[in-house]
């Protein structure tokens, strides 16, 4: 369910750490391994009062940026950069018992940034 008309910020900030690396056979790789990372992905969402086909026009932009540091067997590397970008627009309909949205999202991969998935 989308919020009431207005501009909203939803912040996603995953932080992860790992010290275990699993090989293709499902067993732990015995190398010294560590991976740390943090991402910030603010979703800016606007629900307008403009009505189209009986529903409110909505749009969002969802940029991301992150930092990762990995070390394996004494070698290490860090990377900071922009991540992928998601933008979209649609129409939302609300009634007392039913909420729906029809939207088109465009997902743009970062060429040299940090890929999230």
Number of helices: 0
- Look at the helices and sheets and give the structural class: mainly beta
Please bin the fraction of helical residues.
under 10%
Number of domains: 1
The largest sheet, given as strand count, sense and whether it forms a barrel, is: 8 strands, antiparallel
Following the backbone from N to C, one meets helices and strands in this order, namely EEEEEEEE
Keywords for this entry:
117 residues, mainly beta, 8-stranded antiparallel sheet, 0% helix, elongated
Q: Could you explain how this protein is built, in words?
A:
The protein has 117 residues and is mainly beta. The chain contains no helices and 8 strands. It has one domain (6-108). Helix content is 0%, strand content 64%. The model has no long low-confidence stretch (mean pLDDT 89). Strands 1, 2, 3, 4, 5, 6, 7 and 8 form an 8-stranded antiparallel sheet that branches. The protein has strands spanning 6-12, 15-18, 33-52, 55-62, 65-72, 75-82, 85-94, 99-108.
Summarize the structure.
This protein has 117 residues and is an all-beta fold. 0% of the residues lie in helices and 64% in strands.
């Amino acid at each position: 369910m989308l919020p009431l008309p207005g501009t909203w910020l939803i912040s996603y900030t995953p932080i992860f750490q790992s010290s275990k690396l699993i090989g293709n056979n499902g067993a732990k790789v015995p190398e010294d391994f560590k991976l740390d990372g943090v991402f910030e992905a603010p979703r800016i969402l606007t629900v307008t009062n403009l009505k189209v086909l009986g529903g409110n026009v909505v749009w969002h932009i969802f940029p991301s940026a992150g930092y990762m540091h990995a070390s394996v067997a004494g070698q290490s590397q860090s990377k900071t950069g922009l991540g992928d970008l998601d933008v979209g627009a649609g129409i939302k309909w609300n009634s007392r018992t039913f909420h729906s949205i029809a939207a088109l999202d465009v997902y743009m991969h970062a060429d040299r940034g940090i890929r999230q998935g």
